Amino acid sequence: MEAVPVGEDSAAPGDQAIQATVALDGDGTCLARARHLAADFLNRVHAEHGPPVSQRATDLTQLVVSELVTNARSTRSFRG
User: pLDDT by residue (tens digit) across 4-59?
Assistant: First the structure.
């Protein structure tokens, strides 16, 4: 396996990085919105760059996003 240099944005030289940023407001809908945005991001990667994204990968990504957003909301509530 050959090592490929990686740029500062974590994309290989000549590759376009795919990024998404969103600010969630913390209301009751942010969890569903975050899961939906994660699935949309994976669909965009597939549409623009072709690597297949399995339903299992999408489901696991949404689970991780749910946990991260839940933990962030809990931390925010705890800090007041």
Answer: 444 445 555 556 777 888 888 877 788 999 999 999 999 998 898 888 899 999 99
Give the C-alpha separation, 61 to 70, whole Å.
14
Radius of gyration of the chain (CA): 16
Cβ contact 40:62 at 8 Å: no
Helix 55-79, helix 30-49: angle, nearest 10: 140
Dist. CA 63–CA 32, nearest whole Å: 11
Model confidence pTM above 0.90: no
φ, ψ for residue 13, nearest 5 deg = -55, 135
